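Quick one: C-alpha coordinates for this chain, please?
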Amino acid sequence: MSKMTDENGTPYRSYNRTWSEIEQMLEDAEGKLVQWKQWYDQCRKNGDLDGMKEAARTHKALQGVVKTLKWTLGEEGIDNPLE
Protein backbone atom coordinates (compact mmCIF):
# COMPACT_ATOMS: atom_id res chain seq x y z
CA MET A 1 0.00 0.00 0.00
CA SER A 2 1.30 3.42 -1.03
CA LYS A 3 1.41 6.45 1.25
CA MET A 4 -0.74 8.13 -1.39
CA THR A 5 -3.75 5.87 -0.68
CA ASP A 6 -5.61 4.53 2.34
CA GLU A 7 -6.19 0.86 3.13
CA ASN A 8 -9.10 0.75 0.65
CA GLY A 9 -7.00 2.19 -2.17
CA THR A 10 -8.68 5.59 -2.00
CA PRO A 11 -6.26 8.36 -2.99
CA TYR A 12 -5.12 10.67 -0.21
CA ARG A 13 -6.43 14.18 -0.75
CA SER A 14 -5.15 17.13 1.23
CA TYR A 15 -7.94 19.56 0.25
CA ASN A 16 -5.43 22.36 0.65
CA ARG A 17 -5.90 24.18 -2.66
CA THR A 18 -6.95 27.79 -2.33
CA TRP A 19 -9.60 29.45 -4.44
CA SER A 20 -6.85 31.62 -5.88
CA GLU A 21 -4.90 28.54 -6.97
CA ILE A 22 -8.00 27.09 -8.63
CA GLU A 23 -8.73 30.40 -10.37
CA GLN A 24 -5.11 30.59 -11.57
CA MET A 25 -5.36 27.03 -12.90
CA LEU A 26 -8.51 28.03 -14.79
CA GLU A 27 -6.75 31.04 -16.29
CA ASP A 28 -3.79 28.88 -17.31
CA ALA A 29 -6.06 26.23 -18.84
CA GLU A 30 -7.95 28.86 -20.83
CA GLY A 31 -4.63 30.21 -22.12
CA LYS A 32 -3.55 26.73 -23.17
CA LEU A 33 -6.88 26.28 -24.98
CA VAL A 34 -6.01 29.28 -27.13
CA GLN A 35 -2.49 27.95 -27.78
CA TRP A 36 -3.74 24.52 -28.86
CA LYS A 37 -6.35 26.10 -31.15
CA GLN A 38 -3.62 28.18 -32.75
CA TRP A 39 -1.45 25.06 -33.10
CA TYR A 40 -4.36 23.24 -34.77
CA ASP A 41 -4.83 26.12 -37.20
CA GLN A 42 -1.10 26.17 -38.00
CA CYS A 43 -1.04 22.41 -38.56
CA ARG A 44 -4.10 22.66 -40.79
CA LYS A 45 -2.43 25.39 -42.82
CA ASN A 46 0.67 23.18 -43.18
CA GLY A 47 -1.31 20.02 -43.98
CA ASP A 48 0.00 18.28 -40.84
CA LEU A 49 -2.76 15.75 -40.12
CA ASP A 50 -0.99 14.15 -37.15
CA GLY A 51 -0.45 17.57 -35.59
CA MET A 52 -4.09 18.46 -36.20
CA LYS A 53 -5.23 15.27 -34.46
CA GLU A 54 -2.97 15.87 -31.46
CA ALA A 55 -4.07 19.50 -31.18
CA ALA A 56 -7.76 18.59 -31.49
CA ARG A 57 -7.51 15.87 -28.81
CA THR A 58 -5.63 18.12 -26.40
CA HIS A 59 -7.96 21.05 -27.05
CA LYS A 60 -11.00 18.86 -26.33
CA ALA A 61 -9.43 17.55 -23.12
CA LEU A 62 -8.65 21.10 -21.98
CA GLN A 63 -12.27 22.09 -22.61
CA GLY A 64 -13.21 19.45 -20.02
CA VAL A 65 -10.61 20.80 -17.60
CA VAL A 66 -11.94 24.34 -18.02
CA LYS A 67 -15.54 23.23 -17.51
CA THR A 68 -14.62 21.24 -14.40
CA LEU A 69 -12.68 24.14 -12.88
CA LYS A 70 -15.58 26.51 -13.59
CA TRP A 71 -17.93 24.00 -11.94
CA THR A 72 -15.59 23.78 -8.94
CA LEU A 73 -15.69 27.55 -8.59
CA GLY A 74 -19.49 27.50 -8.82
CA GLU A 75 -19.69 29.48 -12.04
CA GLU A 76 -23.25 30.18 -13.04
CA GLY A 77 -24.43 28.09 -15.98
CA ILE A 78 -22.07 25.16 -15.31
CA ASP A 79 -24.42 22.60 -13.79
CA ASN A 80 -22.54 19.38 -14.49
CA PRO A 81 -19.08 19.11 -16.04
CA LEU A 82 -19.84 15.54 -17.16
CA GLU A 83 -22.53 16.65 -19.60
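Residues 19-72 form one domain.
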